[in-house]
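Standup, Tuesday
Yesterday: got the pipeline producing structure tokens again.
Today: sanity-check two examples.
Blockers: none.

Example 1:
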Amino acid sequence: MSKNIVIIGGGIVGLSTAYFLLKEGHQVTVIDKSDITSGASFVNAGYITPSHIIPLASPGMIRTGLKMMFNSATPFYMKPRLDWDFIKWSWYFHKSSTAEKVERAIPVIKDINIISRELYTDIKSSGDLGEFQLERKGLLMLYKTEASYEHEAEVAQKASFLGLEVKELNKSELKQIEPDIKIDAKGAIHYKCDGHTTPTEFMPKMVAYLKGAGVTIKTNEAVLDMKVSGGKVSEVKSHKQVYTPDEVVLAAGSWSGELSKKLNLKLPLQAGKGYRINVARETGISIPAILMEAKMAVTPMKGFTRFAGTMEFSGINTKIRKERVHAIANGAKSFYPDLEIHREEIDRAQTGMRPVSPDGLPYIGKSDTYNNLTIATGHAMMGWSLGPATGKLVSEIIDGKRTSMSIDAFLPSRKFT
């Protein structure tokens, strides 16, 4: 039976959810406070990453954050502040950062990434969006030190055990597959299982398709409140109008935590800010890479190469810290010594907020409190990779179908103590 569904949030998760709900015959409205041309879904590295099997909440991360707390140029920066929500989230993050919990998360992260990778392929094969970049060149984990190699080799062993395609490359082999750019690295671990896209190409094409297929997309419209009655969300109120949906999907990214408070829900969530620099000239880089010691990503996209990274916990804000942008440029130079990122390219850097749950796993599932509310947020650095899988899972949840995988690890009601 067709339902009237309101999706709050027009990022990759919200639009993917609209796509799969539309395919099931529902009437869908997407509401976003922006014009859907910027933010985390546009400035990310574009990775589709089954290889990213380790959640952000892993042993040692809080200690790393505390060490870097007073240096805003570091890759993992937690701005000191008296914010009770942040303090609680930090405690939950600490409690989640155990070896046992990471081991439980690894196969779950792999499974949802594999589902999403195949759904990206299905979307392209459908022709709905027309032509868009979707390549499967894998991902290079470039390292300079033995310590970095040993760390990643351990991850690679786990990935290989799970059936993912992994290969170790020495300096000579690295040169063979990346011949057009000088790389200052001892070697690389090549995750052949990974793919990449150009988000600034994919997102407008998805918006255009959804509009043409009958989805209503409301931009520059902020949701201000929600009314509840009889155990349901009965109204969604924006500053422009009131909606009376059958079902509501909360997919507002880093703003989901604040919106959940309007329903008296506890959804621990913090905004993890990332940055990107685009270089719209030939770099010679043809394969996506993580520069391990610099803790940043490099992606050859359609028409430019993107250098992206950092995780900054400083609340929801769009302030660009120049020292963090320069750290990305310097990190790129350290691995690609012949590459110069120009001042004007640095000056055009952009930022986006990633929604981060305390355990690094997304929230995907029905609310325990309101039976017509489904939550889909908290994907941390895997939002782009997991967008289609999340959209598919949400459509299955709303339709009461058996989900493509178990969502127990993603339930919004899970405890972090």
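Example 2:
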Amino acid sequence: MVDPGIAVDRTPEAPPMLRATSLTRRFGGLTAVSAVSLDLHIGEVHAVIGTNGAGKSTLINMLSGELAASEGRIALDGRDITTWPQPHRARAGVGRSYQRTTIFHAFSVLENCRLCAQAALPRNWALWQAAQRCQSSVAIAREALASAGLQDEAQRIAGTLSHGAQRQLEIAMCLATRPRVLLLDEPLAGMGAEETERMLALLVALKRSHAVLLVEHDMDAVFRIADRITVMVNGEVIASDVPERIRTSREVRIAYLGDAHAA
């Protein structure tokens, strides 16, 4: 079943659900990500920010398994998954969304989620049963839609949803795979103010039962929702702390605004 959203009280000593240690990715002579370490905890939104080309998408691709790390280690709930391919990580509990919507526009909202649930619950032995009649995957899909606030849109064609609702559907599709970690790549991109508010409320609810990594350019939203912020510049981490300290960091202001604004 989809996680019920029970709040988790995390102490600083609690082990992370996902830990990246000294992750590095090279493309020939270019180092896109250099020795990045971060911890993702259930009960927290951990935002990764940086200008274009900072290495954020490369980092999230390594965490999800779509890119192999040149160096470093990734552990999920204490288990080394560094060499695991993306499908294996997804089945183990690492879900992600993308900068561009990846829904099946011609299918219903429910069918989009059911397909994701089915992928996470393969039943090779049930060859005689139509996949659409699998009650387990349908139930998981409906619970995922409810968690994402789309239960009333289940029978709509996905392509007719608003942009914001399509982004919600992407998260519902992630939830249908029953993840413990959510890697969200710019989920607020292209949203208006009302859609942004709905998405932020959804993320606050989801962090109660998931470890959430958020890559986002909307700084107002990041500082409202993040429990911890990691700042990347040219593939390296220059700061990682609670939002209040990131906001007042001279090094971060220099990286974003230049020396003249950092006094």
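Quick observation on example 2: The domain at 1-93+181-263 is CATH 3.40.50.300 (Rossmann fold). Residues 45 and 212 are 5 Å apart (CA to CA).
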